[in-house]
Design goal:
The protein has 819 residues and is α+β, with helices and mostly antiparallel strands. Helix content is 43%, strand content 15%. Strands 2, 6, 7, 12, 13, 14, 17, 18, 19 and 20 form a ten-stranded mixed sheet that branches. Strands 3-4-5 form a three-stranded antiparallel sheet, with helices on one face. The structure holds adenosine-5'-diphosphate and magnesium ion. Magnesium ion (MG) binds next to helix 3.
Length: 819
């Protein structure tokens, strides 16, 4: 079937600009929003702040150009809405773009600009990131969420290359689909994605979080198809980012495109690729491919993307379903095409800021030119509207303004998001942006009206009716019914007659025409009478129904009354129970409190008891420690006492000994006075000590050997021990005999023994002689064994004995001596 052409929009050409006194035309201002991006660093100096939801304050920092010129002054700018730095992507989309999505799905055009200096967040606002999409991905999400079940199959609509669309029947569309599917996909060619699509560009969409909202009240008796186009304007040249590069030659460079005007004076890019997409991921895949191509192009040209304008256009093509709600009406007059253009403009900064040199200056100059032209156009539009003049708006001076001129002439709604970086360094660039925003918000564009479409006179809701009918048919078929002849008539129920007959009036056909019209009118009269009768019958039925309902109503009212009284009773009971419950709860609470108090008391008692136990056990310990201390003290005292007692005992014994010696002396002296006895002169105590001293000196002489010192002698207090080590025992009594033996101490060596001990080897033996002072008159054996009578006086012997017992602690009991 040969497709027909359709213009981009079905709307009639807008009327010329209103002049003073002309009929009133509804106008809307360009909606200008402001989005302030978050600070780049935590303590950033800022010159832009949001005063309220509609006002922004711009304060000049000390470093700015205006400040240096002395023109700096704080200014406030009004916007339709101000998005503060903490606003989300969803906030911006819902407020700014969602109404445009709703419009485009109802056939109205829309244009949304992002304007601002580089780094102010234009691209962030338009595209965002995969996990937090900007306006473009959200728009695609919402479009497909809203029309998903009303989409046509692929290739039913296809672009005609002249801003219009052709429609074809299902059989033609399916053969075209087969043809496309059979064609190998060229890697450089973005085209309508297929099921077997190239996934190389889909990595970005894999982690995407889609927007789940949708637009309600879509005309469900229409079918929809979505097309996307992606172009960029760089250096005042237009490039199609979705162009098939297989035709581009070995350079692989994009061809520049030209702008054209269609029959309805709408501007379009000639030969621009439009890709039919069936879901948001398909559409984003196309977008990402375009972006990659853009990037490659920039790398080749060694320039930056912030210098170009990118335009992503979503076109919605819709057409009604036929009377049965089954097939698409391919009549061009019934089709409707609308578009939403989302524009990420180039950075609005001046040349010196970009530090452009050579070719770059040209680029930057052109960018500024196109933005300057946009500004001039806005100014002229505003002036025309303010003064009623009709100055020519210089749209043609730049590609951007030329492409969008229809919007400013009333072809659709225009919105602008002014992105602002609040940092103080950007003040000099932000000031003109604010001024432009203020200017743009004063421009009024003609309100876009609901596009008119030829009413096909079809039953509304036919799609649903058709679906219901199909469902019923399926179920009947399942139940084994014959449904072959089952048909449903979805034409309007109440109609006087079919459309008027096509007649052409001439003299010859006059009677014929009259007859035809008469028959037609009679049919209408007949239909009317029939409808009137039907209506009367229905009114009667309805009256009867109303009377019935009234009766039922009365009965119900009575029932309601009785139920109400029951309800009131029940409510009174409930209230009583509630108050009881409240009382019980309060009692419960007080008991609970008491219980808690008791518990606390018990806890306190336990704590006190534990403390007491601890103190008790500590006291016990203390007592034991004290006992031990006293015991050890007692032991020490005991030892001390014992020592004292021993000392005293020794002293006592020594005293006793002296007294005994004296007694003996006296006795002896007495005896001397008797014949046969040697007379001994009486001696005092000091005399007694004399020989001891002499003995000591001789003692010292005899102990010249260092190995036989006195300390060694004291270590062996036993008189019968080895005389060699005890210098006070230089003689010993022989065992079992009362004879004193002389020992000969001498010089010797101490040698270690094999058993780990030591032995003394005497080399130089000195013979010492000592006599028992108390042995008189016992005869002793001389060294040669002959008994010998000691001739030493008793006094000398006593003196020697005293010297011998010089130290009381080594006093030898007197039983060893024989007095
Ligand atoms: P422009 O397109 O205006 O040159 P971009 O959109 O590329 O600026 O933003 C520059 C940087 O600032 C990007 O890294 C972007 O993520 C960040 N940015 C901009 N606006 C915002 C915002 N509202 N929230 C978070 N980051 C932002
Ligand atoms: Mg950018």
């Amino acid at each position: 079937m040969k497709p027909e052409r359709t213009p981009m929009s079905r709307r009639p050409k807008p009327p010329p600009k209103p002049k003073t006194g002309e009929r009133f035309i509804e106008r809307d201002p360009v909606e200008v929003y402001c989005r302030i991006r978050p600070p780049e660093t935590p303590n950033q100096e800022e010159c832009v702040t949001a005063v309220d939801s509609r006002t922004v304050k711009l304060a000049p920092p000390v470093s700015c150009f205006a400040f240096r010129n002395g023109h700096a002054k704080e200014q406030q700018y009004k916007f339709r809405h101000v998005f503060s730095p903490d606003s989300t992507q969803k906030d911006v989309f819902d407020y700014v773009a969602k109404p445009l999505v709703s419009d485009v799905l109802r056939g109205k055009n829309g244009l949304l600009f992002a304007y601002g200096v580089t780094g102010s967040g234009k691209t962030h606002t338009m595209q965002g990131s995969p996990h937090d999409g900007g306006i473009v991905p959200r728009t695609l999400d919402v479009v497909f969420n809203s029309i998903n079940e009303y989409q046509t199959k692929r290739c039913i609509f296809k672009p005609d290359g002249m801003n219009g669309f052709d429609a074809q029947c299902e059989s033609d569309a399916s053969s075209e689909r087969r043809r496309i599917d059979a064609t190998p996909i060229h890697p450089k060619t973005p085209r309508t994605p297929r099921y077997r699509r190239d996934t190389s560009g889909s990595q970005d969409s894999s982690q995407r979080i889609p927007d789940s909202s949708r637009i309600e009240c879509i005309d469900e008796d229409n079918v929809f198809s979505i097309f996307v186009a992606y172009i960029e304007i760089y250096n005042n040249y237009i490039y199609d980012l979705l162009e098939d590069l297989s035709d581009a030659g070995p350079s692989g460079r994009l061809q520049t495109k030209i702008l054209r005007e269609d029959a309805q004076h709408n501007m379009y890019v000639h030969g621009c690729t439009e890709v039919e997409v069936k879901n948001p991921d398909d559409a984003l895949e196309v977008l990402y491919k375009g972006q990659r191509r853009r990037k490659i192009a920039y790398t080749r040209l060694n320039c930056e993307s912030s210098r170009s304008h990118s335009i992503f256009t979503i076109r919605v093509v819709q057409a009604p379903l036929d009377a049965q709600g089954e097939e698409v009406v391919t009549d061009k007059a019934s089709m409707m095409v609308s578009q939403l253009s989302l524009v990420d403009l180039a950075g609005s900064e001046r040349n010196n800021r970009t530090k452009a040199v050579g070719d770059r200056i040209k680029e930057a100059g052109n960018i500024n030119n196109s933005l300057m032209t946009l500004r001039t156009c806005i100014e002229v539009l505003r002036e025309n509207q303010m003064t009623g003049s009709s100055k020519k708006v210089p749209y043609r001076d730049s590609k951007v303004t030329h492409y969008f001129k229809n919007y400013f002439d009333g072809e659709g709604k225009v919105k602008m998001v002014v992105c602002v970086n609040p940092k103080a360094d950007d003040y000099d660039e932000t000031l003109p942006v604010m001024k432009f925003a203020e200017l743009a918000s004063e421009v009024q564009v003609q309100r876009s009206v609901q596009p008119t479409r030829q009413d096909p006179g079809l039953l509304p809701g036919r799609r649903r009716a058709n679906q219901l009918f199909k469902e019923v048919r399926r179920r009947l078929e399942e139940e084994g019914e014959n449904v072959k002849n089952l048909e449903v008539d979805l034409t309007p129920i109440y109609t006087l007659a079919p459309a008027w007959p096509a007649v052409s009036y001439t003299a010859e056909t006059r009677d014929d025409v009259i007859m035809k019209l008469k028959a037609y009118l009679q049919k209408r009269i007949h239909n009317r009478e029939k409808l009137q009768t039907e209506l009367k019958g229905k009114i009667l039925t309805m009256h009867t129904n109303v009377v019935e309902m009234e009766k039922e109503n009365l009965i119900m009212k009575k029932e309601i009354m009785s139920l109400r009284s029951l309800y009131d009773d029940a409510m009174t009971k409930v209230r009583t129970l509630e108050s009881m419950l409240l009382n019980a709860e309060s009692v419960n609470e007080s008991l609970q409190r008491k219980f808690t108090d008791y518990n606390n008391l018990v806890d306190e008692c336990n704590a006190v008891r534990e403390e007491r136990d601890i103190a008790k056990s500590q006291g016990h310990l203390e007592k034991q420690r004290m006992k031990a201390r006293l015991k050890s003290k007692l032991e020490i005292e005991k030892d001390k006492l014992k020592n004292d007692m021993q000392t005293k005992l020794c002293e006592q014994k020594s005293k006793m000994y002296h007294s005994q010696v004296r007694a003996l002396q006296e006795i002896f002296l007495d005896n001397n006075q008797t014949p046969g006895h040697v007379r001994v002169p009486s001696t005092s105590d000091s005399d007694l000590h004399q020989p001891r001293q002499g003995s000591q000196s001789s003692f010292k002489q005899s102990t010249s050997d260092p190995k036989l010192n006195i300390s060694q002698a004291f270590l062996t207090p036993d008189l019968r021990g080895p005389a060699v080590s005890n210098q006070r025992h230089r003689r010993s009594r022989s065992q079992g005999a009362d004879i004193w033996l002389d020992h000969r101490p001498g010089q010797g060596d101490v040698l270690p023994t094999a058993g780990g001990g030591s032995q003394v080897v005497l080399q130089d033996v000195e013979i010492l002689k000592q006599r028992d002072p108390l042995a008189v008159p016992v005869s002793k054996r001389s060294s040669d064994g002959t008994p010998k009578v000691d001739t030493t006086t008793v006094q000398e012997r006593c003196a020697t004995g005293i010297a011998y017992y010089g130290t009381p602690s080594h006093y030898v009991p007197s039983k060893r001596t024989k007095l």
